[in-house]
Amino acid sequence: MRTSSTKGTRSTLGRTTRAAATLAAGALALSLTACGGGEDDKSGDDGKNGGDKQQPASVTLPKLDGESLEVAAVWTGTEQENFKKVLAEFEKRTGAEVTFVPAQDPIINFLGSKVAGGAPPDVALLPQPGAIKQAVDKGWAKPLGAEATKELGENYSQGWQDIGTVDGKPYGVYYKAANKSLIWYNAQVFANAGAEEPKTWDELLTTAQTVYDSGVTPFSVGGAEGWTLTDWFENVYLSQAGPEKYDQLAKHEIKWTDPSVKEALTTLAGIWGKADYVAGGPTGALQTDFPTSVTQAFTGGDQPKAGMVFEGDFAQVNIGETEAEVGTDAKAFPFPAVGDTAPVVSGGDAAVILEDSKAAQALATWLASPDAASIQAKLGGFLSPNGGVDSSVYPNAVQKKIAEALVSAGDDFRFDMSDQAPQAFGGTPGKGEWKALQDFLKNPKDVAGAQEKLEADAAAAYGG
């Protein structure tokens, strides 16, 4: 979601992109704005996501009294606190002591320093497939044992298993996933403006103008963090250029000077290039971090700093820091279709073992289980690709339907493009794609300049 990988990524991309086709538009043409239903809404349940299905037995874990573990991730705030509750249950069941280690972006660099110092964490949550490959190539990552692999096979689609596999061996447990193709909006702003949820890009522009005419800036953009801008680009590009081109650009088989990139950047400029459409204008957006970009859309009643904010289901964590209630005050619609089909881009965080031990293997097994994911799912702002999680545990109808769509899609999803790229290009603050798109947000008229910079940085990162 945030950081990325190395040029070793290319050997895993074939598996990743074959297993990752666009989430079926029909699966996500769902009522994300439903404000009723909640946990007792089981209509249309097909048995895959709860309802009458028989729940799997609780995962079996060994006794680990006296054992201690360290788990590293870049998660902060509410996300970190909720994950610690998952770790606390593991401690309760096993007797082990688990310490959460806050990591910095890029996490691969953070782990490198820990490995060099002879004190790597036992387990790390890596936010892209390329980072897993890099950890394997460096000899840091250890394969999953029989119990963790068994838990993966029982609970995950083959696509999610493949993304965590390197050279035929399973290394990563995708504990957390993300649907990064949602636009959240302030329901009262829309009601006051008479705005409707758009289904196409042209309708989105019309909706933006309607919100603007009502006296509210249409969009909040967290431009201080370059990964949010890559997500904007990826959604536009996937829908407009199509999945085949998306895969080619992800592997740098076509250049960033390709006409398809020009078309996507020109489309983005339709919003980024209108200063009155972005809260604070380009300068303000570049000083706005992601959490603030979300909260400022739902603070101030019906006169917030912006009426809409684009990002994944995890934005609910930040919405929860305001007085807005998801499903009532804060609603969401799928990213509108720019081309023939609405896009869906997914991301995720995989647990990888760095210090192999009985305790580390048990923790990986725990994180692959429905038991673990269900704890954090109940707390909100979290989405699991684990098919054993009963969707009724999600705290609201919006999150429940997003989760059902992800699981029911099986292997049909596209993974975040920047997370597939070498770290120097797709995952480093102030460099590569992050910096180039920040510069483009500042000057959306310079499409050609942005393409040239993107291609120069990509060529260097991919090795030519």
Automatic annotation (TrEMBL):
Basic and acidic residues: compositionally biased ranges: 39-51
Coiled-coil regions listed in the entry: none
Annotated region (Disordered), positions in chain: 34-60
Signal peptide: 1-36
InterPro entries: Bact_solute-bd_prot1
Cell wall biogenesis/degradation keyword on record: no
Segments traversing the membrane: none
Keyword vocabulary terms for this entry: Signal, Transport
Xref: PANTHER family: ARABINOSE-BINDING PROTEIN-RELATED (PTHR43649), OSMOPROTECTIVE COMPOUNDS-BINDING PROTEIN GGTB (PTHR43649:SF29)
Family membership: Belongs to the bacterial solute-binding protein 1 family.
Name listed for the protein in its UniProt record: ABC transporter substrate-binding protein
Organism: Streptomyces olivaceus
Organism ancestry: Bacteria, Bacillati, Actinomycetota, Actinomycetes, Kitasatosporales
